[in-house]
Amino acid sequence: MVVSCVSVSESLRSPRSRWGVPLFRAISVGMSNPTVISPKEAHDKMADGVPYVDVRTVEEFEEGHPVGAVNVPLMMRGPSGMVSNPQFLSVMVSRFPREAPLVVGCKAGGRSQRAARLLADAGFAAVFDQGAGWDGSRDAFGRLVEPGWARQGLPSEPGQPSGRSWADLAEKD
């Protein structure tokens, strides 16, 4: 009985999909792309010139984002909650070469995981999902599993930088 409790406790610390694969790494199973990376790894890739695409809402991006990130929201705030951004894929295809690497991130990993899958399905060859997001990934009970970009103290900035805001990117589409 004690062993079962330890197993349950361990599975709560490392949430798993129904296939027994840790949720943060499940995206990589069965395909070479996208790959889940940590905030520090995302920062290192940015230092090497890889663009960081923040897929959070305009409002979330404005509150704070990685220095140099561009905002292409996967979801938008609608009158009755979050709705899919119908321009997401068309803006991504028009702004970024499909063969070039990209890092995508969100608040806690869910939207970036969906965005990474969409981009991989659209033929983007090297998508990196910054799985902990801006704030951090959490388990089913809301406990922090991996601190995100902001919690790790990585370089950030507020606002809607010219040429990197959703308004600027969508306007050019």
Entry keywords:
173 residues, Oxidized Rhodanese, domain 1, 5-stranded parallel beta sheet, two-stranded antiparallel ribbon, 6 helices
Taking all Cα atoms into account, the compactness measure Rg is: 17 Å
CATH class: Alpha Beta
| Average pLDDT | 85
Structural class: alpha/beta
Distance N terminus to C terminus? Answer: 59 Å
Would you identify the CATH architecture? 3-Layer(aba) Sandwich
Strand tally is: 11
Q: Can you tell me the residue ranges where pLDDT is under 50 for at least 5 consecutive residues? A: 1-32
What is the H level of CATH, i.e. the homologous superfamily? Rhodanese-like domain
Named CATH topology: Oxidized Rhodanese, domain 1
**Proportion of strand residues:** 15-25%
| SS field, number of helical segments | 6
The residue fraction in helices comes out at: 25-40%
Shape: globular
**Main beta sheet strand tally, sense and closure:** 5 strands, parallel
**Number of discrete domains:** 1
Q: Give the H and E element order.
A: HEHEHEEEEHEHEEEEH
Question: What spatial order of strands do you see in the largest sheet?
Answer: 1-8-7-2-4
